[in-house]
Design goal:
The protein is of the alpha+beta class and 128 residues long. It has helices at 51-65, 82-96, and strands spanning 2-14, 27-39, 68-69, 108-118, 121-126. Helix 1 packs across helix 2.
């Protein structure tokens, strides 16, 4: 199994409406995001996927939510947790590169998206 990973980042504000603690107040993070693609077959150039294609998709998604209040995005239902952000980014990457949707016989697929709110706090959405 091969795996490639690219990273990007964005800054955004949010609050967790259904959380009781300091995170229910408006605050912000400098998010770090990693997108992982896995597969079993390399192309004729010896690559699973061109890094630049995945990097461009991830950066484009991050640019859409950079410097926003994530609570203003209906997808998050007023609770833009790191878990929901990871799923949001995962789905948006698949919209930009539909060929990465996991299915039988695919040579490469989007496996996971990691979202770090801080250096030590990560949420992941994956196909497994």
């Amino acid at each position: 199994m091969y795996e490639v990973r690219v990273s990007a980042g964005f800054c955004a504000a949010h609050f967790l409406q259904d959380y009781h603690g300091k995170c229910e107040n408006l605050h912000g993070h400098n998010y770090k995001v990693y997108a992982h693609v896995r597969g079993t077959v390399l192309d004729e150039g010896g690559m699973l996927l061109d890094f630049s294609e995945l990097k461009q998709a991830l950066r484009s998604v991050c640019a859409e939510i950079d410097h926003t209040n994530l609570n203003d995005i209906s997808f998050f239902c007023q609770n833009p947790s790191a878990e929901r952000i990871a799923f949001f980014i995962f789905e948006k990457i698949l919209q930009k590169i539909p060929g990465l949707k996991k299915s039988d016989g695919k040579k490469a697929w989007l496996h996971a998206v990691d979202v770090f709110e801080t250096e030590s706090s990560r949420a992941r959405y994956s196909t497994e």
